[in-house]
Design brief:
12 helices; alpha+beta; four-stranded antiparallel sheet; five-stranded antiparallel sheet; single chain
């Protein structure tokens, strides 16, 4: 979801293009976008835009005669500046603001239709869309500390609650907490005065740095690469990559549709924070500290490669593939392969890879359960397509194994989807977590 630095970047690009311009028309391309009926959209036609401003993570277009449009981009909504009159894209297009000198397009990736647009009139109607969070860039330390102490929450939850703080989301809260050297699960009521001051400075410095950096990188162009994952971020989106401060691997906690990224060495004194689903499954096998995590990973990685060798440094994963034909049963109501079919291909090719490298006795002794699937859908497969599903394994981590999969259209080798899965080996009869002999894992690698 675009957060405060991203919204400020949009405002920086929108103001010189829109302020003072008259709206020729607002085209709504999706029935899911517009959430109001009165005043009607047609009332905006011919009215000039007086200002563009921010209301939390929402973008407000201020029209003459006290009209406002309130746009919430949510996770996947993005704005684009195009030549006047361009058509609204069929699948991803939601709306188009038409002006004499150009068109502002709103698109949304995916199918969940979360972006929203409200047309309102009057200051009180606009105020109803304000979540009420503190403007952290203008706040004093006393105001900031007062909000923190109001209720007992984890720092991660407090920073991302729009009713408490204005414009901070999942990405920049990770960066702020890393800069402040504080655990995301630390309770707000447990902070010392020194820690509260450190957090206040980190909020202002982190957000100001990224606002200035994004503006400098974009210049006068319209921002087309608004994303939560940016080069130069310290921890967000950098799971297992080295922390820029101490070089320890960045860790994560997965919950719902989000994840928390943090550095155990810098933020928690080396203690690993429990990932609920994973730590419950692994129980006593879950490492309690970064040192224990590194020690276990080193034992698993080096067990069959010889003393002193680093797993993967002199070996590469063996890539295994299968070809599947798209059948009529695979097609959804839009004429494309259903998303569930991609997941089935991911699991089928993983099972085939395991069977190709193991004996019947080994397969009878080791079962696998999936802890997590992550799939990025990039292009559609259609009836009659042949698809290549290619998979390989990553390095072991304690009692879990990563598996990577890419799905390509055979005709042009275009990547349709990429997946990352986390598998856990278990005893087939008891269902308890078990470990894999490193020598068996090495069969999936070539030197």
């Amino acid at each position: 979801m675009p957060e405060l630095p991203d919204i400020m970047l949009y405002l920086h690009a929108l103001a010189p293009r829109l302020v003072g311009a008259r709206l020729d028309g607002l085209r709504i391309g999706s029935p899911f976008l517009l959430r109001t009926a009165d005043p009607p959209v047609a009332d905006l036609t011919g009215r000039a835009i007086r200002d563009v401003r921010r209301l939390g993570k929402r973008i407000v277009f201020v029209f003459e005669d006290d009209y406002f449009t309130v746009l919430h981009l949510m996770i996947a909504g993005r704005l684009h500046w195009k030549p006047a009159g361009v058509p609204v894209p069929g699948r991803s297009g939601l709306a188009a603001w038409d002006f004499r000198h150009g068109t502002l397009l709103l698109t949304e990736a995916g199918t969940k239709h979360r972006a929203s647009l409200h047309v309102v009139r009057g200051a009180s109607a606009l105020a109803a869309h304000d979540p009420g969070g503190l403007d952290v860039l203008a706040a004093t330390p006393e105001q900031f500390n007062g909000i923190l102490a109001r209720e007992s929450h984890t720092l991660k939850r407090a920073l991302t609650d729009p009713r408490l703080f204005d414009g901070i989301g999942n990405a920049y809260s990770d960066e702020i907490l890393h800069a402040a050297r504080l655990s995301p699960l630390r309770l707000t009521t447990q902070l010392t005065p020194e820690e509260s001051e450190r957090l206040f400075r980190a909020v202002k410095q982190t957000l100001t740095y990224w606002i200035d950096r994004l503006r400098t990188e974009t210049g006068d162009a319209f921002p087309e690469k608004v994303t939560a994952f940016r080069p130069g971020m310290a921890v967000h989106g950098r799971f297992r990559k080295p922390c820029p401060v101490c070089a320890s691997p960045v860790q994560r906690i997965r919950y719902a549709e989000n994840e928390v990224n943090y550095c155990a060495r810098c933020q928690t004194g080396g203690r690993l924070l429990a990932d609920r689903s994973l730590s419950r499954l692994l129980k006593q096998d879950w490492p309690r500290s970064l040192d224990e995590w590194e020690e276990r990973a080193g034992r698993l990685a080096g067990g069959a490669t010889g003393a002193g060798e680093s797993f993967g440094m002199e070996s590469q994963p063996v890539r295994f593939e299968r070809t599947f034909a798209v059948t009529a049963d695979d097609i959804d109501g839009l004429g494309h392969v259903n998303n569930v079919v991609y997941l089935r291909w991911v699991q089928d090719v993983a099972a085939a890879h395991w069977e190709s490298a193991t004996t019947p006795a080994e397969r009878a002794d080791i079962g696998w359960v999936v802890l997590r699937h992550e799939i990025d859908y990039q292009h559609s497969a259609k009836p009659g397509d042949q698809v290549i599903v290619r998979t390989w394994v990553g390095p072991p981590n304690a009692a879990t194994f990563e598996r990577h999969t890419e799905i390509l259209r055979a005709a042009d080798q275009r990547v349709l989807a990429r997946a990352r899965s986390l598998w856990c080996p278990v005893h087939p009869r008891s269902g308890r977590v078990r470990r894999i002999d490193p020598a068996l894992h090495d069969r999936f690698y070539a030197r």
